Amino acid sequence: MGSPVCGFLKQNNIIFLRFFAILVLSCIPDGTNLCSNPSFDTPTIPPHSSSSSIPSSLKTLTLDGYFSFENLKHAAKDFGNICHYLPIAVLHPKSVSDISSTIKHILYMSSVTKLTVAARGRGHSLQGQAQAYEGVVINMESLDRPSMYIENGEVPYVDVSGSELWINILHETLKYGLSPKSWTDYLHLTVGGTLSNAGISGQAFRHGPQIDNVYQLEVVTGRGEVVTCSDKENADLFYGVLGGLGQFGIITRARISLGPAEKMVKWIRVLYSEFSTFSNDQEHLISSNNSFDYIEGFVMINRTGLLNNWRSSFNPKDPIQASQFSSDGKILYCLEMVKYFNPEKIDVLNQDIEKLLSELNYIPSTLFLSEVSYVEFLDRVHLSEIKLRSKGLWEVPHPWLNLLIPKSRILDFAEGVFGNIVKDNNNGPILIYPVNKAKWNNRTSMVTPEEDIIYLVAFLLSALPGTDGLEHIMTQNQHILDFCAKAQLGAKQYLPHYHTQDEWQAHFGTQWETFVQRKSAYDPLAILAPGQRIFQKAISIT
Questions:
Q1: Cα distance between residue 264 and residue 281, in whole Å
Q2: Catalytic residue positions?
Q3: pLDDT (tens digit, 9 = 90+) per residue, 408-431?
């Protein structure tokens, strides 16, 4: 696609600058591959004509917070622990105006500097997406968080800072008997971070991803403007930012839809030996009117003593049969289901669950159940994090691969990948579950396969010490991607990571032109989110 020409950008309502936006894909110059080594071997910032003036010009800004220019390695690290892009400065904002002023200043200096800006929440990106090589990283956790405002009337919602953590929102809204309806599996993430991607978990089949449960946003655009947007006000920006990979603005506030929250959950797991039976039951459940509240699934490849491991958290329905079941050398599929309830309605709940289970075709001896609090279930991954941190196994490389596969090709995918390309999953879980996309809003920037029912398949593997390691997993990931491409499955990456223009255009498909137009409108010099490697910083001509 040709290079779009941006119009005039108004500076301080007086000065007009004309920008020629060269929207070239792949932000990092050829030959500078900073993801090749999981160590901190980031190249020293090379000198250039304006390098000495950049920090001093930033120091002239009047801020409520402050900049740091030394000891910045923490901003060149993320959960993926694969890419390390060293910035030139880190902004620790106290106010939204700090973010706006910094972006406006960089925009004004654009004729003499290539500075870019990346917003960093909890640093849970996988491939350096929240980093800014030789740019400015905004530490969103420094942003002052006003008290949450909770509206518990006819249409309940909560107003929160973009830097707020979902776990904090859960605890605060539960005081009113409410909670968000759609979650991620891990809650210690910022609102702005998940809404810039999508936010998908086992509730998405019913409520859609988190980006479909937002009423309003406050956004700082790539022009430095602070804009309030919703489906009725500045709607193009609103839908562009949701799932927009940080390309059009930094989310500083969000109004999130709430629903009634129960106190307890019934947590159920069952196993299947045939993928087709497993997927048919999953699709049946997400299409049922009175189904479970959460539905996910796992692939288990050659896992020894699987059911014994479950006993620490679950109780077998039939202990004798469960003790005789062997998972050794098998490919098994786990269906995980949850039903929310209040204790006074336990009898009705048990009847509903018994009816739902009677419609499924799982292996009878593998039925395991548990009852835990609503909070304990939603915050379940954090418990695993605590255990891994205690063993020094949390801050290892995480070469995760997340895919969206159309329902019509999921059997082909399973047959080609499980047991062939992927021969075990001892390094981490493999999630797989369907969602009904017909209930999703198709105006956001999120890209999905075209069919109504799609599967999320997430290879959440870790390069643990003493295992095959990072290179093996990344090679395996590439083999999976190559298989999808060769078989023409119509797969899309979730949390996408690409290197070339052709790959990005293929990813966005018919949405590419709209995506580029929005970039020109809201971030014409491609200042924001350079770590996504979609657009290169443009040059301005006064």
A1: 25
A2: 124, 185, 296
A3: 999 999 999 999 999 988 889 999
Residue with tokens 């699709």: 283
> b/e string for 420-432 if b means 16 or more Cβ within 10 A?
eebeebebbbbbb
Q: Which residue carries 């062939």 as its tokens?
A: 420
* 46 DSSP 8-state letter: P
- Cite the DSSP H helix spans in 32-134: 53-59, 96-108
pLDDT of residue 540: 53
With a CB cutoff of 8 Å and minimum separation 6, the contacts of 71 are none
CA end-to-end span of the chain: 25
Helix H or strand E encompassing 178: strand 178-180
- The backbone torsions φ and ψ at residue 234, rounded to the nearest 5 degrees and listed phi first, read 50, 50
Summarised one tens digit per residue, pLDDT across range 502-538 is 889 999 999 999 999 999 999 999 999 999 999 987 6
* 29 compared with 369, residue with greater pLDDT: 369
Range of the domain at 94: 61-141+519-532
- Same domain (yes/no): 252, 208: yes
The tokens of 31 are what? Answer: 């030959």
- Look at the pTM and tell me if it is higher than 0.85: yes
Distances in Å between the alpha carbon of 129 and those of 41, 76, 404, 496? 18, 10, 20, 10
CATH label of the domain that carries residue 175: 3.30.465.10
Assigned domain for 233 exists: yes
Q: Which two tokens stand for residue 148?
A: 């949450």
